[in-house]
Design a protein that fits this description.
Blueprint lengths: L12 H11 L5 E3 L2 E7 L6 H9 L15 E9 L5 E9 L3 H4 L2 H4 L4 E8 L7 H12 L4 E6 L10 H7 L3 E7 L7 H13 L7 E3 H12 L4 E3 H10 L5 H14 L14 E3 L2 H13 L1 H5 L3 E3 H7 L3 H4 L2 H10 L4 E2 L6 E3 L19 E7 L6 H9 L9 E2 L2 E6 L2 E8 L4 E8 L2 H17 L6 E6 L3 H4 L6 E3 H9 L4 E3 L6 E3 H6 L18 H15 L10 E5 L5 H17 L3 E3 L10 H10 L1 E8 L1 H5 L1 H4 L3 H9 L4 E6 L14 E2 L12 H19 L3
């Protein structure tokens, strides 16, 4: 949120150096030697054996090494040439396909990677694994380690792979039974991991103190508000620095904080193995597999009966749902589906292909898990809660049906929609898929729309146009395009409008306008995430915060909001509602708990108030935001809002065009736009 996106890379080395120079006291910083080493590859390739051998060369290999369930984290220390200790957090990933779909949560930047291949099996798809690492790790250095069991060797075309992947640094071989090549592997890891950008950067001692407090915390996870509080206790008070630190520790493998996920950003997982191992215990459970991904609360009690999980079953289930690994079947409380375990057989149904809207996505490289995440996101509309399988789903909403099928081998997703509200349902589907696409940095794909010429209308496989290219043609003033099959000229705008209800721009920015249909979906899927809460709060307020010197602008806002307030049965709350003698903080907390949206009227007076200058209000806003509150702000005057907590919230109007600088007619137009945004934020979610 906010005009500057802290989520882009809040732990960048330059940001750390910026903190260092602001401190300007070398005694307040110290070099920090720590990094994350991730081992990936197919199941049974020898990843766990390698991890244990790196830590202890005398480790005795097991005849049948137990496969890693999810992720195992191993600490390894080595001494650098300067005599300083270096700590490596080795992340050993389970190789079974069921784990591949969650790689995006754990493959991180500021790391070194090893792809382990069992030379006897010859089943490693080097291109696929290297592409996954490239896509999710910001091109961190990676090695291929050939695990030459029984000294069986195999050739890897290093020249071709290096031509495709410039982050592929070394191809090494080992026989872990006799440690052949192990010393060179360890030396190579030490070399590359010691030269990562962040290593030896002077780290603020405040950060080190907070990191120690997190590691010494016995809990498995805390809320982000508790994390902020722990930072403040240790004298780290700037919110940006708190987020930079959590991003830094996330990349090091110390804890997990998914700042770019709208739900998971509200939690800091202190013990990564605790959460991931518990989640994968469900996905690996034989009963759950035999039931094709269906499980109940009773199943979970059996799966999570160990003491470390027994008292946290509800929280772990929430974690699975927030990781998009499962969903609760609507109207069948406490029965859940993990879609990656669904049958591969297509469901049996009929389809009327008359006047369908059709869209295709094709991918240069297709990561696993796109469709299963889509199924979780759209599960409230699955037809009869039955027409769903591992590679496809049929949705049904308002007499409109959509078929979404993934063909992984062809690297494509096909969509067709039939019924009364085709364009609206297509808009929701593309919106949800674009959200998933945007979670992968640099994912390359094309959106394809079918030709609508007379010839193609009658073809089972029409010619397809790239949506991006169509937008480029429109922007260049080229309004017609020749069909490659019929050679007829077709209208570019009509090609787009035939399929797209909400335009997706050529640079793939998602239109911020969300239809009522979209809000219905969000409300229904969020219901299963919230129904377990023991306390239900009625959210029916618009919370307004302002400076008393700006009372006339409060009146203007209230005047323009009246139609929305009346139509949506909302109440407006401001501090005039606080009774004399009441406790200010408690009244604010209660008001925020009952609010759907908080609106801040920002001026120099507002920023100078104790609420902001002494950071009284932002922590309360953040706590309420974690529970579903939407926060927006209105620029009344030119201000230095960038220097305050206000920066992280969403402006409802361009900050470089504050309302007080506008003429009366422009002001009225601005108020209309602002009220639309407040109305959208106050719609049911």
């Amino acid at each position: 949120m906010g005009s500057k996106n802290l989520d882009e890379d809040p732990g960048d080395v330059n940001e750390i150096l910026d903190f260092y120079f602001r401190v300007q006291d070398p005694t307040e910083t110290e070099p920090f030697y720590e990094a994350k080493f991730l081992i990936v590859g197919e199941g049974g390739a020898g990843k766990t054996s390698l991890a244990k051998k790196i830590k202890n060369e005398n480790y005795k290999l097991q005849a049948k090494e137990k496969s890693t369930e999810g992720i195992e984290v191993i600490r390894w220390h080595f001494t650098q040439p300067n005599g300083k200790d270096f700590r490596v957090n080795i992340w050993d990933f389970g190789g079974q396909e069921i784990y591949h779909q969650t790689h995006q949560f754990f493959l991180s930047k500021r790391s070194v990677y090893a792809l382990v291949a069992d030379t006897r099996q010859e089943n490693t798809d080097f291109y696929w694994w290297l592409k996954v690492v490239e896509l999710l790790s910001d091109k961190s250095p990676v090695f291929i380690i050939k695990n030459e069991k029984q000294d069986r060797q195999c050739q890897v075309d290093g020249g071709q792979l290096r031509g495709e992947f410039d982050n592929l640094k070394e191809i090494l071989a080992t026989n872990l039974a006799n440690n052949r090549g192990l010393a060179e592997i360890k030396k190579t890891i030490q070399l590359y991991i010691s030269n990562l950008d962040h290593v030896s950067t002077p780290l603020p001692k405040l950060w080190v103190r907070v990191r120690a407090a997190l590691e010494n915390n016995s809990r498995n996870y805390i809320s982000v508000e508790e994390y902020f509080s722990l930072c403040r206790i240790n004298n780290l008070t700037d919110r940006k620095d708190m987020l930079r630190l959590s991003s830094y520790l996330h990349d090091l493998g110390v804890c997990l904080h998914f700042q770019e996920d709208s739900t998971l950003k509200h939690y800091v997982i202190l013990k990564p193995e605790w959460g991931t191992t518990a989640v994968y215990k469900v996905l690996d459970n034989q009963t759950v597999k035999q039931n094709l991904g269906c499980f109940t609360k009773d199943n979970l009690e059996d799966i999570w009966q160990e003491d470390k999980y027994a008292d946290m079953q509800d929280e772990l289930l929430q974690l699975m749902m927030r990781f998009k690994l499962c969903y609760e079947i609507p109207n069948r409380r406490e029965i859940y589906i993990a879609p990656q375990l669904l049958s591969i057989e297509k469901a049996n149904y009929t389809w009327d292909d008359t006047n369908n809207l059709i869209l295709r996505y094709t991918y240069t490289f297709m990561p696993k898990g796109i469709l299963t995440r889509f199924i979780v996101e759209t599960h409230p509309w699955i037809e009869q809660q039955k027409l769903v399988w591992k590679n496809g789903v049929v949705l049904n909403k308002d007499q409109t049906r959509a078929e979404v099928i993934e063909n992984y081998n062809q690297r494509e997703i096909k969509i067709r929609v039939a019924g009364n509200r085709k364009k609206e349902l297509m808009a929701v589907i593309t919106y949800e898929l674009e959200k998933i696409h945007n979670s992968y940095e640099g994912l390359q794909y094309q959106t394809l729309v079918p030709c609508n010429c007379e010839t193609c209308k009658n073809l089972s496989i029409p010619y397809y146009y790239s949506l991006e290219e169509l937008y480029k043609r429109l922007n260049a003033g080229r309004h017609q395009k020749e069909c490659e099959k019929s050679y007829e000229m077709v209208d570019v705008r009509k090609l787009i409008d035939d399929v797209m209800f909400q335009s997706v721009t050529a640079d793939r920015e998602i239109n911020p306008q969300v239809t009522q249909l979209q809000t219905e979906l969000e409300e229904q899927r969020n219901e299963s995430l919230t129904h377990q809460s023991s306390e239900t709060i009625t959210r029916n307020q618009v919370f307004i915060s302002y400076s008393h010197q700006d009372e006339e602008w409060l009146t203007k806002l209230q005047t323009h909001l009246k139609p929305t307030i009346r139509n949506q049965n909302l109440l407006v709350w401001d501090d005039t509602k606080i009774q004399a003698g009441a406790e200010w903080r408690k009244e604010i907390e209660n008001a925020l708990a009952a609010a759907k949206v908080a609106v801040l009227l920002v001026s120099p007076y507002f920023l100078a108030s104790n609420f902001i200058a002494e950071n009284q209000l932002p922590p309360l806003l953040d706590a309420a935001e974690a529970k579903g509150l939407t926060i927006i702000w209105i620029p009344l005057s030119f201000t230095s809002y960038e220097e305050t907590e206000i920066e992280k919230y969403q402006p409802a109007h361009p900050p470089n065009q504050p309302l007080k600088s506008l003429q009366a007619v422009q002001q009225d137009k601005a108020w209309v736009d602002i009220c639309k945004k407040i109305k959208a934020a106050a719609l049911p979610r």
